[in-house]
Amino acid sequence: MLKTEALRSNRRRHTTSTPKIAYLAGMIALFAVIPVIYILIRALTGDPELWQRIIQTRLIKLFSNTLLLLLAVTTGTTLLGVSMAWLTERTDVPGRKIFRWLLALPLAIPPYVGAIIHLALLRPRGGLISQWLEELNIPSTFLPNPTGFWGAAFVLIIFSYPYVFLLSAAAFRSLNATYGEAARMLGRTPWQTFWQVTIPSIRPGITAGALLVSLDILAEYGTVALLRFETFSSAIFVQLAGRYDRSAASILSGVLILLALVILYGEFRIQGQAQFTQIGSQWRPAALIHLGKRRIWGFLALFFTVLVSFIIPVGLLVFWSTQGILDHQTFSGMQIGSKGLVSFIFNSVWSSGFAAILAVLFSIPIAIYVVRYPGKISRLFSRLSQVGYAIPGVVVALSLVMLVNRFLPFLYATSLVVVMAYVVRYIPQAVRSSESAMRQLSPSLEEASRLLKRNAFQTFVQVTLPLILPGLLAGSALVFLSSLKELPATLLLRPAGFETLAVRVWIWSEEGFYFQAAPAALLLVVIAIIPLFFLLRRESIFKQ
Amino acid sequence: MKLEIEQLSKRFTGNQYPAVDNITFSMQTHEILCFVGPSGCGKTTTLRLIAGLERPDQGIIRLDQRIISDMHTFVPPEKRNIGMVFQDHALFPHLSVFDNVAFGLQGLRKAEKKDRVSGLLELVGVEALAKRFPHVLSGGERQRVALARALAPEPALLLMDEPFSSLDAHLRLEVREQIRNILKASQSTVIFVTHDQEEALFMGDRLAVFNQGKLEQIGLPETIFHDSGSRFVAAFMGDSDFVRGTSVPAGFHTELGLLEQQNDYSPGTAVEIAIRADDIDFQLNQQGNGKIINRFFRGAFNFYRVELDSGAIVHVFKLHTEIYQPGERVLTYFNAGHPLKIFTL
Q1: Is the ipTM of this complex over 0.90?
Q2: What is the mean pLDDT of residues A422-434?
Q3: C-beta atoms of B12 and A14 within 8 A
Q4: Distances, alpha carbon A253 to alpha carbons A36, A70, A256, A383, A541, in Å
């Protein structure tokens, strides 16, 4: 009732002439979209012969590899994420409250750290598991090859499923008991109810999660590079870092972005439909399903998932870190010149923190404009500012290298370019948080302030800002978390000597120094858990 | 005149019809004027135009002889000296009750502010809640805090946008009486919006009835009720039914018989007569002119719905002891004792 009223008064403001905030929002949208447009233009105006050659030699292989991985990981995360959400939200499996937290925690582990551990365990020669087996005189040849398609798919699934888990758990949670009850009264069995009522109701949540995972997979560089499965992202990285061939990289990037934009468009459509369900005052949770003797299987499924995706990786990092710190030689190897772990932490935190602040500041005008002045133009600006979802880190890097070189040469090879890349890539997350915070704010609060003699700016400072602040902080936590884990753009854009935790973890592991890399990786995970914890606490499924 | 509105109009982009269509009226100091009409009739938009929350397409708004809105002037809401109580109360969730009320008292010294807020909280009867935050208040308490906040800067005009719609039915009756007493005690000039005709009759010194963006009638509650200016007002405000008739020198010829009533219509004019449930009566009669289709028991009386042979529906009050069954044929006849309202077709 109040909500529709709020919507109606949102819409009322149509006729006023273009507000000043529109220009600000437009400039920010332009900033967010320039890198994509620039790359698309570079790609389209690329040398036809080069296009010809790339199409003949590379494109089909890259396309099939990328799509295959996308399909496998999306399917895998959806199955794993939805079943974990079902177990913790809809059944009486023991320990489900603590599992909700544990299942979300892998979000603090960058997939490439997972890939490093995966390799360290399963390498045919020298891998920990193969060594143990050899000590026990068991031939290790039956172990699966850790690299290639299956390795990459496995690692990406176990470190990406939490997205789908969180979104579908929230959808399960918001389902009102009465839907299921109505279906039962209309003659459906529990099984039919599940497939005909429950799953269709949470489908938007699941689909949105799966599409976000797809965009992440398109952008993923570290995992596929380490496990030697070539996708668009890793191929572009090689063109840039190995061959310095920006023309070929631009063409590959153009194709990749088009693919990502199609997925992003689908995601926008899903967002537009929004959720079917809402937690209103009449909401009552559905009764839990009693698993009876099968509870043990549910418990084991949860436990095994957490074991593989969180306990083993973090346990190994802790183990290696202690080994590394105790071993004098390894410990001194953690110094690069005069710089040590402290300096990597500092660089990681300030660059991610700065990006988080900028992204949130930029997102505010967009959020105000699209929520308070709904219309075609404001929606366009909001969507343009979110194309960052569709630009993988390597492409952001390529675009910024060329743009900065050309238009802002004084910024070239400074750490500010790295921050800029984070902002372009992750501003969509800030925009979404700020928009949802604004949407929850009834316009009548701002109107009340105006009638109590505050002008528009005073109203923003004294009423709007304090009330949307939690949402803004959540947005900045999200951008901080993502920037902290970011790898390819940082590697390509960082000035000499600018070392972050992510960069160091990557370089040491590529050289095979796992003991040396472990403390930095562990610190990365620990620092990432702080904003993650803050974000998870805001989720409905962690509230009682 | 306190407030003068001339030819005010507003159409929202994308809508074919104007939300507010050429409205003119004025108000006296200390008056409570009630805007009433079905949802979407333009009453809330008119209110928001006066508040400065929307820009009119045309028209003049004058408050205390000062133009606050016309083709060249648009005084922003914060400079209009107008207070408003919102439908959802719009209490600032991050401020205590005290700070909410004090929000409009910028520039006062601390002690003065404290006195003024305490005085207002006492006036609305929530002085014990000063330190609480809005989310712990009950609906009625929020209502009164919202009123105190709007009254705090001593606005020249107070606007209230369906302020009781979020309250439970039984609470509403209690709160509206308290609020009306407070408004009268503080000598406020008030525009009160509601879609509930009974609430409008209770709250307003005068009523302004809106329909499809137009002001249908403005006047005393009694006038609006007894002497409706249009068929819409009679139907919406008076719960009237309508039967057709033709004028004759002695009155009007209808299927309920002859209504004896002086009139100036030329004989044979087709008219509609507005009838309320207390204006007519019936007796059981097989040869009658209609049949009972339903009975609604209202405690003190029975309320009968009767379908006349022409298909017209009328309603009749009977004592709570007089019980008849649906389906019985009845003879329905005039029993008003006062002139009825006539509208030409």
Answers
A1: no
A2: 94
A3: yes
A4: 9, 17, 5, 20, 38
